[in-house]
Amino acid sequence: MRTYLVTGGAGFIGSNYIHYMFKKYGDKIRIINVDAVTYAGNLENLKEVEGRDNYTFIKANICDKETIAKIFAENDIDRVVHFAAETHVDRSIKTPEIFVQTNVLGTAVMLNCAKAAWENPDGTFKPDKKFLHVSTDEVYGSLEEEGGYFYETTPYAPHSPYSASKAGADMLVKSYMDTYKFPANITNCSNNYGPYQFPEKLIPLIINNALQGKKLPVYGDGKNVRDWLYVEDHAKAIDMVQENGRLFETYNVGGHNEKQNIAIIHIILDTLQEMLPEKDPRKAYINEDLITYVEDRKGHDRRYAIAPDKIKAEIGWEPETMFKEGIRRTIAWFFENEDWMKNVTSGDYQKYYEDMYKDR
Questions:
Q1: Chain centre to alpha carbon of residue 208
Q2: Which of 29, 155, 200, 286 has the most Cβ atoms closer than 10 angstroms to its Cβ?
Q3: pTM for the whole thing?
Q4: Domain span at 25
Q5: Can you give the CATH number for the domain in which 140 is found?
Q6: Which whole-number Å values give the CA distances from 315 to 11, 60, 128, in the listed order?
Q7: Where is the NAD(P)-binding domain (predicted)?
Q8: Count of domains in the chain?
Q9: Nearest CA to 10 among 350, 342, 358?
Q10: Under a CB-based contact definition with an 8 Å cutoff, are residues 190 and 138 in contact?
Q11: Which residues are catalytic?
Q12: Would you state the torsion angle of the CA atoms of residues 344, 350, 353, 355, taken in this order, to the nearest 10 degrees?
């Protein structure tokens, strides 16, 4: 049975990845989920899998090298999928040092512990061991409003403390691949959306605010462009890179779904109107009158767009979920999980961990 060590598995993308892997492989794999359960980590995301014999949750910070080393020492880890990171740009502007600590130092700890566990006395590495570092397209900086894409060869040009910290982490992984021939890959993805996303991010924030009749904040003129990737498509890409990607390579993972932020908001409003029952009173106030423009974010990149040509050509992955379908799936999930959103926005979700582990 292959053992996966997933960092940040209680977060949005990490929890979706764990669900995907159990759905695909069932009892053929074992997953150890290491998460510090900060504000963005939510163990309610994983209620469906917590009772599995082949799933283990360990509360730990990736900067804690003693605990991480112990996990490697006590388990024969075959795969590391490294999601754990601070990710919200606005928070990075306010507290950049936290992002450097988690994203750069935490990645260094993970690399060192994996290297120590996997390295042979002659400096080679045990067979069938792989480390996958999950990163972002934001490390590439900003594109012009028209034309051009991010490729794996695009020079790094981060503009926020968040993207700079992720760029630093990427460079560390690259250095380990070059210096030690450490068995790793890097994936740089576009903006994800889907179930379990923390409502500080654009799409869940807009869905939640619209349903409550709250204002829908839009930075600047709302014409910043992002490439949107449905999170399950991303999970599939990560699995395919782990299984079929060439060692030491970087793969860009994009959604072919470029949209302006203001267009995203209009699509969500229209989709909510379509999906709500005719007699639902919320239909009366869900409209563009909720939109309110606010001062633009500092260092706000204008456009991101990924060219996933390499991953398609070498591995056969391409996005399967176009935005119209993905946003309907996402909204349907939020309709079906209103308690999840209430627990997150109230902070009650943090009590779930406390209650679940208080006697352990």
A1: 20
A2: 286
A3: 0.93
A4: 2-357
A5: 3.40.50.720
A6: 26, 33, 18
A7: 5-330
A8: 1
A9: 350
A10: no
A11: 137-138, 162
A12: -110
